[in-house]
Specification:
about 130 residues, alpha+beta, rod-shaped
Length: about 130
């Protein structure tokens, strides 16, 4: 009978287990990386949607005009909550007695999540008739 050399005998059980262990850690790291990437993409989509909603609310103010100071709020069907605040700004033209317009700071805040832990805020200045 011929004896088999070490090279032709194959792998030992320890070598196979070590190879499977390395493979398992590698796949675990890859799955973790992919899930983190998907979570980041989802958060980016949420922020983009909230910013678009805030811009839409500001465009609505431009189209409808401003009635005066105050707060408006609402909620969309997909769970985004928005709040729009109108606050007066100091007007140098009012001190001189000239001007039919009042400058207002308009701030739109859009929040989402179970605890409103995420939000986007946009601010601008608009003129309202006195």
């Amino acid at each position: 009978m011929r004896t088999l050399s070490r090279i032709s005998r194959g792998f030992t059980l320890i070598e196979v287990l070590v190879a499977f262990l390395i493979l398992a850690f590698s796949l675990g790291a890859l799955f973790s990386l992919f899930s983190g990437s998907l979570r980041s993409v989802r958060q980016g989509e949420d922020y983009a949607h909230a910013a678009a909603l805030a811009r839409a609310q500001l465009a609505r103010v431009d189209a409808d005009g401003i009635d005066g100071q105050g707060i408006e709020a609402g909620e969309t069907e997909d769970g985004y909550r928005w709040r729009m605040e109108f606050a007066p700004l100091p007007d140098p033209a009012a001190q001189s007695g000239d001007g039919n317009f009042e400058p207002l700071a308009v701030t739109v805040t859009v929040s989402w999540g179970a605890l409103d832990n995420r939000s986007v805020a946009l601010s601008t200045v608009r003129l309202a008739r006195r």
